[in-house]
Fold Elongation factor P.
Amino acid sequence: MATTSDIRNGLCIRYNNDIYKIIEFLHVKPGKGPAFVRTKLKSVTTGKVLDNTFSAGHKLEDVRVETHKFQFLYNDGEFYHFMNTEDYTQIRLLEAALDRPDLMKEGEVVTVIINTEDNMPLSVEMPASVILEVTHTEPGVKGNTATNATKPATVETGAEVNVPLFINEGDKIKIETEKGTYKERIKD
């Protein structure tokens, strides 16, 4: 059993007959009244996100998990297929278990969280950032650069990201996976 003081990002808990992963939390100690923890929980089975508030000291049923490195192989439309980089076993997951499937290209190594009770994969954690090639973007217009002007760009995985005007087709860019935002251009 865990308590609210054990809450951290990535903690998996059993709540309302489902397993949820904590994706955001905030400890709040108001000047008047008891402390509480405001959380954002993501269901590992359905992908549904819900906000919940736990009072301080509330008991939580945590789920024991292991993490393993898996390589993304391919997507067949319904399932995403992964291979364990240590023993080469393969698993397949529904899109709901993935945080940002639109930023994942074939060959990407990700961390898969596995429930130790039944060895079922719970969720997939992407690396902090990925490097992808821009496949389509409109050319930047000169004189259109008041401050921090951006334009939409499509990357090789099909995701759309807002990028600065100087980015062109064929450029490789680093994207922060948590927010899906442009970080920097990668020089070859």
